[in-house]
Amino acid sequence: MLVITFIHLLYDEIQHIDPVLTTVEYNNGEVYTNHWSDWSGVSKITGEQQKNTFHCWWQWEGEKL
What we know:
Structural class: mainly beta
Shape: elongated
Largest sheet: 3 strands, antiparallel
Number of domains: 1
Order of helices and strands: HEEE
Oligomer: single chain
Helix content: under 10%
Distance between the termini: 16 Å
Strand content: over 45%
């Protein structure tokens, strides 16, 4: 399945550098997967490379994110 996100419309050569992922179940029963990484991509508008550090998370609902 091919997924095109908005970021892919703006950047080429997208990379997640040294990603770290962990899934945690809290004592209230909620489950989250966390992702920390450095990110880079080349702007389709300027041709310049952009770099950022980011964190994102997803909450599980049963067996689905």
